[in-house]
Amino acid sequence: MNILDKIIEQKKIEVADSKKKIPLTELKDSELFTRQTFSLKESVKSGSGVISEFKRKSPSKGIINDKADVLEVTKSYEKFGSGGISILTDEQFFGGKLEDILKVRNDISIPILRKDFMIDEYQFYEAKATGADVILLIASCLSSLQVQEFTELSHELGLEVLLEIHTEEELKHFNKNIDLVGINNRNLQDFKVDLQHSVNLKNLLPKETLSVAESGIYSIEDYLFLKKKGFDGFLMGEYFMRNENPGKAFEEFIVEVRN
User: For the chain, where are the E strands, in sequence order?
Assistant: First the structure.
């Protein structure tokens, strides 16, 4: 069993527990459930296109930054021009939690991506109730039918969809209703990074598709390479979170990009 399989098995347990603790009716009655969401599609079309991430740890890298404050970091990301915020909400493997979105929602005015392993309809109502604007669908752990059904549900809830793919086979999960396609530079099976592989996959997408390069962007050179190859968005977390002050690291990165 690889790490992705382990995560999905654990996620099934967590979702079942959440359903017992907070019924769907309670989620629908939450204050944030009726809020007007922000569009990540629109924000990546302007500025740097960077979607900056708040991430405490990962299975491949271990602890990245478990001292940073989620509100302080995300406000800095917004202040210096981030196109959106990605917040990990998986606790066991990535050290995140849904409460991280709740903590920052009323203090930032740019799109928030709930980055998690979405396998059950309940999680989409959770995302809406906590103030997320976008959800992540990972093709490697979903069927094409699930992607289609989850996309329809997301749109019914006013959420946008970022579909993550890594292989040519996973291109079959794409449908015309997907808002953005994220191409993971890192293989979820062995965690190796290959930027050119992502470029090759991007070139197989319909031309009008908004594309987001994900993971393994470790330098300004990586960013500029991917931007030159036509990517619209760039999901970056570890590059900033490795620093004691992630917000300052993001500011310095944006200054360098503009120069």
Answer: 50-54, 57-58, 62-63, 84-88, 112-115, 134-138, 160-165, 180-184, 211-214, 233-236
